[in-house]
Amino acid sequence: MTTTPHIVFAGGGALGNLYPGLAIAEILAQQLPDVRITFLGDGRPIERDTVTGWGWRYMAAPGMRTPLGPLRATADMTIGKWVARWMLSEHQVSLVVGLGGPATRPALAAAQSRGLPNILLETNAEPPAAHCRLAKRANLTCVAFEEARSRLPIDAALAITGAPGRGGFERIYSRRAAPRLAQTGFSRPREKRLVVIGGVGGATSLNDHTPSALACLGKELDGWRVIHQSGAGRLRETENRYQRAGVDALVVTYLDEMAAVCEEADLVVCRAGGATLAELALAGLPAVLVPDGRPSGGSQLRNAQIYQREGACRVIDEAALKNPQTADRSARDLSVALARELRPLLVDDAQRSSLAGGMLAMARPGAAAQIAAACGELIETAAPTRGLAVAAPRPQAA
Questions:
Q1: Was 166 annotated as part of a binding site?
Q2: Is residue 188 one of the residues assigned to a domain?
Q3: Looking at the structure, do residues 252 and 312 belong to the same domain, yes or no?
Q4: Is 396 inside a domain boundary?
Q5: 176 and 113 within one domain
Q6: Per the database record, which ranges form the Glycosyltransferase family 28 N-terminal domain (predicted)?
Q7: CA–CA distance, 132 with 152 (Å, rounded to integer)
Q8: Any known ligand binding at 364?
Q9: Looking at the structure, do residues 41 and 100 belong to the same domain, yes or no?
């Protein structure tokens, strides 16, 4: 008996881990008739709603949440791996794609122990230790940054693909050739738009400090419309901060149509996850990046520094701002740092245009298609031994 291919994308914990998988899944569904696609995560409502909103099946499993400590992490990994082994067998899974996040490690470890085809996606410049171990046995590890190569096992099968961007961002890129951007991107006779992406989980420091930073700018903010994504549970608090600061802003919990918002934006303030940067690059959107200052967010600073080196953004090192040894207390204030970086960009079209060109130069269009093709090849190779009915991939439209 033959079965149709069933691909599981394992990841989550943050939507930035899910978005690359959604981009790849969209292309696979176009190319492989009758493919079954499931996303495996830790069960958070925002994850489930996002995945099912795209039309895919979502499954949550015990042991696949963000660990709260070393003992809990060991227990969750053990439980998660056994649950994943059962699930991969019970649901006749053909291929597992690890996206990053709490579900990746147990799911890929289970696939590798069963000899199932598996791909690891690494969107950051500094892979975590768990990904380095998984990469050693993965059929393929797709990385977003060339700089990640030296941190992964020398015998790992690697492809420098870039991080996948969702289809909406790919379409923006196709419309934004650099000459056209230079002519029209920053001279439109309309209100300019500053977008602040506070994070679905609530990048609290951006919610807390951006309103007071903008209040410091005064007339430099004239002619700008502020749109701020606050994250779940922080809408009212963030609105109140803007009201107290005397800054007019549209605050929303979540920007559903992020590609459309970014296409109309002129400047963005956000974190520096690999998936976020890949989509900003496709949109050619200049940015002030504030990498996650927590110890777990260290890879974001390296990502941001690489983009800064290429002239694509301004960077505020939030971790450095928290250094108690800094004598000048004002130098430790994120509001002050944000105002300092934003001021020249709000008033100087040429500076924003230069950053936009740097962003476009960092774009890797077609990353999702390249990884989808690798998925199809692995499934096709395994098909004769696993009884899979794999139709020839449909050619992708030019």
A1: yes
A2: yes
A3: yes
A4: no
A5: no
A6: 7-131
A7: 5
A8: no
A9: yes
Rounded CA separation 48/52 (Å): 6
pLDDT (tens digit, 0 to 9) for every residue of the chain, 398 residues total? Answer: 457 899 999 998 889 999 999 999 999 999 988 999 999 998 889 899 999 999 999 998 765 555 544 544 554 555 566 678 788 988 999 999 999 998 999 999 999 999 999 999 999 999 999 999 999 999 999 999 999 999 999 999 999 999 999 999 999 999 875 454 444 444 456 799 999 999 765 568 999 999 999 999 999 999 999 999 999 889 999 999 999 999 999 999 999 899 999 999 999 999 999 999 999 999 999 999 999 877 655 689 999 999 999 999 999 999 888 776 654 555 569 999 999 999 999 999 999 999 999 999 999 999 999 999 999 999 998 865 655 555 545 545 43
What is the pTM assigned to this prediction? 0.89
Residue 124 marked as a ligand binder: yes
Q: Which domain holds residue 145?
A: 6-164+366-386
Do 248 and 378 belong together in one domain? Answer: no
Q: Examine residue 394 and state whether it is found in any structural domain, yes or no.
A: no
CATH code where residue 372 lies: 3.40.50.2000
